[in-house]
């Protein structure tokens, strides 16, 4: 997937818009991560996202986790946990694309 190149302001706006996803289930191959713990602004590069996830694991707070980042492009990610309780990040665009393509998988049954 192509990396996003958002400004910090754009990323913050998107992050605020999708806070309603917190507590909902991850979709697709990420379903094993359970529920979405947070929707946060993260660095845009893969290596920087990996470092961000490690810092988030340590500090449990996005603001501290991103404090190392000196770049100027950002992304919005969903935070979850793997079976060993390690922090994982998934791009919000991938999640939204799956929901759009498979809306019937998110209908709640009585």
Question: What does the main sheet amount to?
Answer: 3 strands, antiparallel
Task: State the distance separating the first and last CA atoms.
Answer: 36 Å
Weakly predicted, low-confidence segments: none
Share of residues in strands? 15-25%
Task: Give me a quick take on this structure.
The protein is an alpha+beta fold and 110 residues long.
What does this structure look like?
- With 110 residues, the protein is an alpha+beta fold.
- It has one domain (8-105).
- The protein contains four helices and three strands; from the N terminus they run H-E-H-H-E-E-H.
- It has helices spanning 8-17, 46-59, 62-65, 92-101; strands at 38-43, 74-81, 87-91.
- A three-stranded antiparallel beta sheet has the order 1-2-3, with helices on both faces.
- Strand 2 and strand 3 (87-91) form a beta hairpin.
Summary keywords:
single chain; 110 residues; alpha+beta; 3-stranded antiparallel sheet; 3 strands
What topology does this entry show?
Layout: H1 8-17, E1 38-43, H2 46-59, H3 62-65, E2 74-81, E3 87-91, H4 92-101
Antiparallel strand pairs: 1-2, 2-3
């Amino acid at each position: 997937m192509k990396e996003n190149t958002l400004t910090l302001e754009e990323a913050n706006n998107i992050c605020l818009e999708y806070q309603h996803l917190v507590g909902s289930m991850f979709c697709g191959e990420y379903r094993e991560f359970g529920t979405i713990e947070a929707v946060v602004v993260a660095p845009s590069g893969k290596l920087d996202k990996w470092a961000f996830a490690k810092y988030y694991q340590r500090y449990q707070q996005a603001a501290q986790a991103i404090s190392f980042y000196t770049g100027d492009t950002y992304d919005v990610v969903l935070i979850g946990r793997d079976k060993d309780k390690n922090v994982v990040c998934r791009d919000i665009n991938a999640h939204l694309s799956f929901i759009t393509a498979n809306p019937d998988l998110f209908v709640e049954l009585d």
